[in-house]
Specification:
single chain; Aspartate Aminotransferase, domain 1; Aspartate Aminotransferase, domain 2; 39% helix; globular
């Protein structure tokens, strides 16, 4: 009815299948079916009590007003200290932009840097928002296919072959959603050499940087000459189990930070005041809940990967970071989209079709193992029983 009314640019935005599958799963649950949820990418632990208390106290103190659009100075200072501590990058508070979630930093970065017809290189499979916003901004999406044989690390050779005079931005995401792949220091060094001296920026999506099973992943911004060319995206959702609080940030050159703040002023005015106070507590307070969560994710990863590998037609590499298993399901004989549908409807197991993360994700499913070991065991049992019902091919 409104086809001719809605602005044409809206057609370039796409949704996110995690939320679509969640809605379908919730519908089945409303009809009385028990569903095991592997679709949504959020830690299943509550926010640590000291962070919740800080928010309550801030509410009691009346921190309910508008505040600094770029982010509270005290929070930006806490983020700067954290960035030095965990990423080894000296950061000034004016280089930090606080936003309602990390996702807006993707939107703002692309809007700030990418002109129509400029190219943006990004990983495929990758977080769906990248391609959606590139198109929305009129940029040209240039996906780089990640391959299972490379442990889903981005091939530097392919990246170099995709760089053109029109390349404006390269998006990196390590540890990665949906594959759990992690770029090595060697990969990052080669990427840094490939872009150094060129008029190309990097959006380094480091939202899973604390959820890594083998050491601390390095940020590309630590390589000589790269800091001023990199926008680091990070946030509180995954590390501190704060998905619904909506708090994230970007770190970038001051000049870009000032422009990005204009976008924030025009869209949100500021990020919720008392939530930012809680963010300071998350960064400056005890970090033991993060370590405990990663330890638990390691156990779950090992169980789900072993379980998936024992199923007919499924093979799964061990993710090195984040909390997603990304098994190859081509051996089941069903296209991954059909298999995801079948598993939800027949077995009450909600997982995502890898193709929802880009064409190179076809033939894979994404399972978020941010759910209890009991659920993982029950889900694997259901998968095993459902796969037996598939006609042999
Ligand atoms: C790779 C990646 N980047 C960014 C985000 C957005 O995080 P937030 O919920 O803080 O907006 C997500 C969330 O799933 C993600 O997986």
């Amino acid at each position: 009815m409104f086809e001719n009314v809605i602005a044409a640019r809206m057609n370039s935005l796409s949704g996110e299948s995690a939320f679509q599958v969640l809605a379908a799963a919730n519908k089945l649950e409303a009809e009385g079916k028990k569903v095991i949820h592997f679709e949504i990418g959020e830690p299943d632990f509550p926010t640590a009590p000291h962070i919740v208390d800080a928010a309550k106290k801030a509410l009691d103190q009346g921190r309910t007003t508008y505040c600094n659009s770029q982010g509270l100075v005290a929070l930006r200072e806490a983020i700067a200290d954290y960035t030095l501590r965990y990423k080894g990058i000296p950061t000034g508070r004016d280089e930090v932009v606080v936003a309602p979630g990390a996702k807006p930093i993707i939107f703002y970065t692309i809007c700030c840097l990418v002109n129509p017809e400029e190219e943006v290189v990004y990983p495929d499979p990758g977080f769906p928002t990248y391609e959606s916003v590139i198109r929305y901004a009129g940029g040209l999406p240039v996906p780089i296919a990640l391959e299972e044989k490379d442990d889903f690390r981005l091939s530097v050779r392919k990246l170099i072959s995709k760089i053109s005079p029109r390349t404006k931005l390269i998006i990196l995401n390590s540890p990665s959603n949906p594959t759990g792949g992690v770029l090595t220091d060697g990969d990052l060094g080669e990427i840094a050499s490939a872009v150094r001296g060129k008029d190309i920026f990097i959006l380094s999506d480091e939202i899973y940087s604390r959820i890594c099973y083998e050491g601390v992943p390095r940020s590309i911004a630590t390589f000589p000459g790269l800091k001023d060319r990199t926008i680091i995206l990070d946030g509180f959702s995954k590390t501190y189990c704060m998905t619904g609080w909506r708090l994230g940030y970007g770190i970038m050159h001051e000049e870009i930070a000032r422009k990005m703040t204009q976008l924030l002023i025009n869209s949100n005015s500021c990020t919720t005041h008392f939530i930012q106070v809680a963010g300071i507590e998350a960064l400056r307070g005890p970090q033991d809940s993060v370590a405990a969560m990663v330890k638990e994710f390691t156990r779950r990863r090992d169980v789900i990967v072993e379980g998936l590998n024992s199923l007919p037609g499924i093979t799964c590499r061990k993710p090195r970071g984040a909390f997603y298993a990304f098994p190859n399901v081509t051996g089941t004989g069903l296209p991954s989209g059909e298999l995801a549908h079948f598993l939800l409807q027949e077995a009450g197991v909600a997982a995502l079709d890898g193709a929802a993360f880009g064409a190179a994700g076809t033939g894979y499913l994404r399972f978020s193992y941010a759910t209890s070991l009991d659920n993982i065991h029950a889900g694997l049992d259901r998968l095993g029983a459902a796969l037996k019902k598939l006609p042999r091919r």
